[in-house]
Amino acid sequence: ACGSSGDESSTTGGDESFVIGFDAYWLGNSWSQQLQAEFEAAAEQYDTIDDVIYTQSDNDVQRQISNVESMMAQGVDAIVLTPISPDAVVPVIRRAEDAGIRVVLAGNPAAEPVYTAMVNVDDHEFGRAGAEWLVEKLGGQGSIFVLNGLAGNPTSEARFAGAKEVFDQNPGIEIVATANADWDQAAARTTVDSLLAAHPDVDGVWSQGGSMTMGAIEAFEAAGHQLVPMTGEDSNALLKKWTELIAAGDAGFDSIGVSKPTWLTAQALDVAMEALAGEEVEQDQIIEPSLITADNLEEYVRPDLPDSFWSNTRMTDDQIMRLFEG
Amino acid sequence: MTVMRLPLGASTRSSLRAGWGLWALAVLTTAGAAIALPAFRTPTSMTSLMASLAPLLLVATGQAVVVLLGGIDLSVGAVLGLATVLVATTESVPVAVALALLAGLAAGAANGLGVLAGVNPLIMTFAAGGIVQGIALLRLSAPGGAVPGAVIDAVTWQAGTVPVAFMAAVGVLALVWFATTQARWGRLLQAAGFASDNARRLGLPVGRVTLLAYSAAGLLAAFAGLAVIARTYSGDALSGTPFVLDSVTAVLVAGIALTGGRGSVLAVLPAAVLLGVVDQVIRLTGTNTNYQFVLKGLILIAAMWLYQAARRRERP
Amino acid sequence: MDTVLLECRGLTKAFGATRAIGDVSFTARAGRVLALVGENGAGKSTLMNMIAGSVAPDRGEVAVGGEPLRGGPAAHAAAGIAMVHQELSLFPNLTVAENVLLGREPRGWLGIDDGRLVRRVGALLDDLELDIAPSAPVSRLSPGQRQLVEIAKAVAVAPRVLILDEPTSSLENPQVDLLYRITRRLTDGGAAVVLVSHRLDELFRFCDDVVVLRGGVKVAESRMSDVTRDGLISAMVGRDVTQLYPPRGRGDGTPVAGLRGVSGDGLHDVTFTARAGAIAGVAGLEGHGQALVAEILAGARAPRAGTVTIDGNPVRLRSPRAAVGRGIGYVPPERRTEGLLFGLGVDENVTVVAGRAVNGGWLRRPKREAAAVDRVVRRLRLTASSQRQPVSELSGGNQQKTLFGRWMLHPALRVLVLNDPTRGVDVGARAEIYGLLRELADRGVAIVLVSTDMQELLGLADEITVMYDGRVTGVLDGASATEEQVMRLAVGEAA
Amino acid sequence: MTTAGLPARRHRLDPHLAVSYALAAVCLVLLGTTTSRGFDPDRILGLLGNQAALGIVALGQTLVLLVRGLDLSVGSVISLSTVVTAAVMDGNPDRIAVAVAATVALGAVVGLANGLLVAYAGIAPLLVTLAVGTIVQGATYVYTNGQPRGGIAGGFRGLADDRIAGTPLPWSLLLWLGVWGIVALTLYRTVAGRRYYAVGANPRAAWLSGVPTTRHSVVAYIASGVLASVAGLHLAAYTGSPSLTVGTSYTLMSIAAAVIGGVALTGGGGGPTGTFAGVLVLVFLGTVLETMDVPAAVQLIVQGGVVIVMMLVNRRLDPARRSRA
Ligand SMILES: Nc1ncnc2c1ncn2[C@@H]1O[C@H](COP(=O)(O)OP(=O)(O)OP(=O)(O)O)[C@@H](O)[C@H]1O
Ligand SMILES: Nc1ncnc2c1ncn2[C@@H]1O[C@H](COP(=O)(O)OP(=O)(O)OP(=O)(O)O)[C@@H](O)[C@H]1O
Ligand SMILES: O[C@@H]1[C@@H](O)[C@H](O)OC[C@H]1O
Ligand SMILES: [Mg+2]
Ligand SMILES: [Mg+2]
């Protein structure tokens, strides 16, 4: 389900050329890295892009605001960014737009519709989708662990809110423990290790994805505990492990990869280029999270690529290889 | 006209002299950046720089007072975050602002009491920071909230390219500097910072000075929360995190000794400006941000090396 | 004028199991100087601290002019009590003027009025005939000058009761004279002065009355004119100290260590020799380079020009460690900052030098260590509650003994360099330390004794090298030298 | 006055140790009584094995604190170590030894840099290790460009996951105890170890007494760097993947563990035995809070509170330390 291709927009753009700004909200895990890589890959396709200005916000809202302002000072035509806080970015986006710069959001929302466009997965929906699958898998009955991302992080809060709605409607489901494991494998592993010791009769794990599901699987295995259904994301590590488990005939495990694709930035660039070309663009482009299940797992898993790869990509194999060769 | 001699104290005058190298460096760097980078001298960039410096200046000023006393405050980030959260979750404007500032004052006073009870400042403020952050997260679990419009109007006002928050921050810094050098409290701060045992034995009001210093740091961190709101228009329990290390860095680059009693709050201004300009230059030149950490670390070590060398020369 | 100004009634203070002061009562009268004497650890500082309010008594009270005092140091100060503490209490990061009026600065429309501050302190210093600039940073002052500033600070409040806890330990003779004049002026003005000192000559000169403490209780009280020197000493120590200085030794051994043509850091072509079996004294007024000589010999400071020699050969001592390796030990003058390992026990403080020599290898042998510590403790008559008592809890004299005892465990000590080793040490302990130094010398160790206490040098040293302005101005034979000869050389006059 | 000797030792339990172990015991009881398999040794030992990284890095931190230092770079070193281990090992069991050697060597180099800057340039430890930590973190980003490469060989993961044959004792716990044993033996039973306390108590006095103080400081920082890299090795084995951020929380946690165990930030007081208790407290308490489903915000509050209370208690126990605080 690819969006508009680069060639079309370059023809419609005439001989105009543009400077684009891209702010990476963070570069601290492989998902955020790939988010930028997808953008870079997409930008290569446009010969109407004169220059791309990259900045990095280190998950710091104020740095992000300064970064956007520095792009404004350098006279960019459009900015693609992933808001770190939906509320905090509104004023600076408004100022950029007022200055004639097209701002396109990728992967996180802003609290007010002051931007040109947003390409996003609804994280509330992301949370719901996994939760619905898990409830059904457990037959509406059972005790579960919840693994959230960073405490206070809006994405984490939104996903959990979505999931919570589903769990609240199913009184048979009991959340026995909620923990913040920061989307991190090590943190998830430690957390689940201790949760498991306290609640050995757990029936399922609702994880916000990232690398946490892998951490949970490892904790179960290390404890010699029968695996249970767990939600996940499109982390290649998880998909590989899952494939292995199926091959080994594991009876307990099943999963669903609710994917928030890293190519959101590529799509956002496409939208930005359309807008610069004077086209009407749809403001809120909410993408249904792709669901990876045992049935379509084969299409996504990439046994030839590293664990830190995120499978739902738009990059070509060449571009992927470059990402992993540094 | 006769020359009027300001009755400024020796400490005040020596603190004016002390930071001249740093002032020169800050001015030269800023001028250099303005000449070399056209984007740097645009009003947008200047305003952005000043707006981002405002909270740092406020937090670092408080940090400087505490470091002068021989302590350190790792809770400033959490206090700043709590202040933004309180403003964003309280409807009435005066109540919101009063609540935020009171919370800062209270957190600072608690730190001061802990330190007076003998808890190491590093540990006391680290632990207190955890508690404050927990409270802030309980009140507002994800960034957002609704900052009263009147607050936003007030804090985002601009005189030309100069944001009011920046002016306020510089004003507060000057005031605090003046207090640390010209008020009795400041003199006691330097004395107790250098040798608290001595001060105690002499019956100097070490307790009051300590309490006041930490309370000031808490209050200024809460103030900084308002300056952050001027940029983010929202509350965020985690929004102060970067200021912890940044404020310590600014204070150290300013040449204030971690051992207490030596250095000038005024030097925090050129130090913060220097760090802010370097940051802005990295941003505007598109330098790979991965090198940012390395650069920051090297600047810190270089600065400390220079100060250390200077202090060694001073000694007979 | 003889009215009672200060009255202590039944003061009692214990630190844990240690009774520091037990039911002590005494009075100090207007216009008189009261001497408070006693051995190290007798409780003098504790008693004075209670009067100044910095230590709270367990029982008893302090009254000034009949009014009982309550509260801490600030309340006592308000009642007119000022104290010069045994340990210096100035802030080196502030100027002299800032220190003297700390917390009481004159204020103008812009906060502290520095002009008035400097003028006021300047006038005070002039008045006291102290040649110290009010705007000089205290960090630039010599220890003696600091002590004088400390005294000026106490006098600045025009106290009704002035307490001086060993104020002369860093002072030169002329400075002591100055202090004498200052106290007399205060008493003439109707104040009472309490003076704690271990320098007996001084006490007889300064004081009108005397109170003797022993083991925390008052054992004697009388007019100064009614006691003799020997009587005072035996009241203090509970036995007779007939001989302070041991008999002199041979004093003509072979050169072991020395300096040859050392210059720089204020020294000019200093040559000096320490001989095996002899005590080599280094005399001079404070700050004329004697301390540098000690530090260079100890490896704590490298000479800019010239050499250190050992057994006649030039050597480079890169650090005290190198010196220790060659058998040179050092007892620094500032025991708190340079000598003691605070927070650690007597045992750890004593064995730090010995290390493997006592243990015989890498691993510690606790029994051997304990036995070694025991030997030192007995030999020095060191008083502590156990080998592991933190040295911070010992009295100053016992702390000093600990420092000294450290070097008794050196496996091959050849030279012991001491800088003011008996500062603030009571007469009994001093006799013991002198005896030990002589004993070490008799065993062949070369002793280098840097001291500002001229009596000590004249009584003990086999040879006295006198310094002035970084130069050696003369070398005198210890047995025949007179105080006058030493003094002339010390002020730069030819002998 | 007599020439009586002194009793050699006070037969008294160190009050800091008594309090920190009492607190650890309380947390253990809480842990045991609030969950179903409560005191099952298998569970408790497993739990401790999983936290070997914290236990080990806290021992390094203790050594540095003893000589009046502070190591804020351990978090960055831990992260870098997981990255380097994975890159060198590249999933190949034959390369385990090389990877371990390379990682430990790197930790030693960072420690050496810290030590040299503190001991020779005379810069405050807080600053040196803050700056060096920042540089190490930056270097990790530059080296990986954000994408750690390589992988952890399956065999190596046994270090974290396996128990010693026939016992409920995890290898990782044994590793931690082994490191504790070495540190404790050095500090308590060797002449050189004793000198660490001398350096911490008064560096100038120790130097004047001929103790090689700079060498002791440098060695302490090297040990801290090495132990941080060992913690990184354990985490790499534990999670099976490299991470740019996994070490972050360990910096302040290691300091917290040491001070809860009675180690003085002013140097010369406390030791590995106390630190061990400090880690137990943090691990048991954290587990209790987590399994009782206490919200993250409340966990922060409780942990902060415990640290403050412990510091107040330690302060009460040791008024002598006040003067040096
Ligand atoms: N804070 C304290 N804790 C424990 N013991 C103490 C404390 N202060 C004093 N002592 C003990 O009380 C006794 C009296 O000490 P004090 O310092 O008053 O003696 P002093 O007469 O001043 O001796 P010196 O001549 O050495 O100055 C000593 O045994 C000392 O060890
Ligand atoms: N932190 C402390 N803990 C325990 N005792 C202390 C502490 N600080 C000081 N003391 C005690 O207080 C007393 C007063 O200290 P001070 O520095 O006056 O020593 P002093 O005994 O008078 O020394 P000197 O022999 O040199 O006259 C000392 O006896 C010492 O034992
Ligand atoms: O979607 C997640 C993203 O939001 C987070 O930052 O990193 C991990 C991903 O799972
Ligand atoms: Mg005394
Ligand atoms: Mg005394």
UniProtKB/TrEMBL annotation, chain B:
Pfam families: BPD_transp_2
Swiss-Prot/TrEMBL keywords: Cell inner membrane, Cell membrane, Membrane, Transmembrane, Transmembrane helix, Transport
Subunit organization: The complex is composed of two ATP-binding proteins (LsrA), two transmembrane proteins (LsrC and LsrD) and a solute-binding protein (LsrB).
Keyword Transport: yes
Protein's job: Part of the ABC transporter complex LsrABCD involved in autoinducer 2 (AI-2) import. Probably responsible for the translocation of the substrate across the membrane.
GO molecular function term, any single one: transmembrane transporter activity
TM annotation in the entry: 20-40, 52-72, 92-110, 122-142, 162-180, 211-233, 265-285, 291-310
Subcellular localization(s) per the UniProt record: Cell membrane
PANTHER family to which the protein is assigned, alphabetical: ABC TRANSPORTER PERMEASE PROTEIN YPHD-RELATED-RELATED (PTHR32196), AUTOINDUCER 2 IMPORT SYSTEM PERMEASE PROTEIN LSRC (PTHR32196:SF29)
Primary location group: membrane
Any Gene Ontology CC annotation: plasma membrane
Organism phylogeny: Bacteria, Bacillati, Actinomycetota, Actinomycetes, Jiangellales
Presence of the UniProt keyword Membrane in the record: yes
Membrane topology value: Multi-pass membrane protein
Name of the protein this chain belongs to: Autoinducer 2 import system permease protein LsrC
TrEMBL record, chain C:
UniProt keyword terms in alphabetical order: ATP-binding, Nucleotide-binding, Repeat, Transport
Pfam name, any one: ABC_tran
PANTHER family for the chain: CARBOHYDRATE TRANSPORT ATP-BINDING PROTEIN MG119-RELATED, GALACTOFURANOSE TRANSPORTER ATP-BINDING PROTEIN YTFR
GO molecular function: ATP binding; ATP hydrolysis activity
Taxonomy, superkingdom: Bacteria
ABC transporter domain span: 6-240, 236-494
Keyword Ribonucleoprotein among record annotations: no
Chain segments annotated as transmembrane: none
Entry-linked InterPro entries: AAA+_ATPase, ABC_carbohydrate_import_ATPase, ABC_transporter-like_ATP-bd, ABC_transporter-like_CS, P-loop_NTPase
The protein's name in its UniProt record: Sugar ABC transporter ATP-binding protein
Organism encoding this protein: Jiangella aurantiaca
TrEMBL record, chain D:
Keywords: Cell inner membrane, Cell membrane, Membrane, Transmembrane, Transmembrane helix, Transport
Location of this chain's protein in the cell: Cell membrane
One Pfam family this sequence matches: BPD_transp_2
Major location category of this protein: membrane
Gene Ontology cellular-component annotations: plasma membrane
A GO molecular-function descriptor: transmembrane transporter activity
Name this polypeptide is given: Autoinducer 2 import system permease protein LsrD
Originating organism: Jiangella aurantiaca
